[in-house]
Amino acid sequence: xxxxxxxxxxxxxxxxxxxxxxxxxxxxxxxxxxxxxxxxxxxxxxxxxxxxxxxxxxxxxxxxxxxxxxxxxxxxxxxxxxxxxxxxxxxxxxxxxxxxxxxxxxxxxxxxxxxxxxxxxxxxxxxxxxxxxxxxxxxxxxxxxxxxxxxxxxxxxxxxxxxxxxxxxxxxxxxxxxxxxxxxxxxxxxxxxxxxxxx
Length: 199
Known about the structure:
This protein is 12% helix and 47% strand. The protein has a 4-stranded antiparallel sheet. It is built from 1 helix and 13 strands, in the order αβββββββββββββ. By secondary structure, it is mainly beta. A hairpin with a 5-residue loop joins strand 8 (100-113) and strand 9 (119-126).
């Protein structure tokens, strides 16, 4: 009887514990007004993110990560936790349309470890109008430098996304061989993935 009770208690513990672990693999951060949101989550040991605005998908599940000379930080990772911070700052800038800027955002720092327990952090900052993120690699032992060999960051747009882009210019062309330069035509509402130049 005691063995049965012990077994049932273990099952109950697992039942209560596993959903908590699953929830910890997915975190969200939104801008101060709650309209723009980023979800960070794990897929088979790989970090991913997605973006919504007013509950409409702006970026589908997209990969995150770096490959360095110290190790691969794009897969076989473990999510170890997050930190949150509210950003509120005011500054002056004379060369833009509004000289006095009041900027607010929510910051989310997600921490991951590889199999050697080396940590990488991905810091997201979400305001009401934009998203930024960066990778942070910590110092390991005597290492003071790290070479990034590949970045696996992706931006998977929904199929109906259109672009507002200048065509890619060939090099060493145009007036006085100045291309590529900013002086080039653009097209509106072209489908994502449509080539912008024959090269």
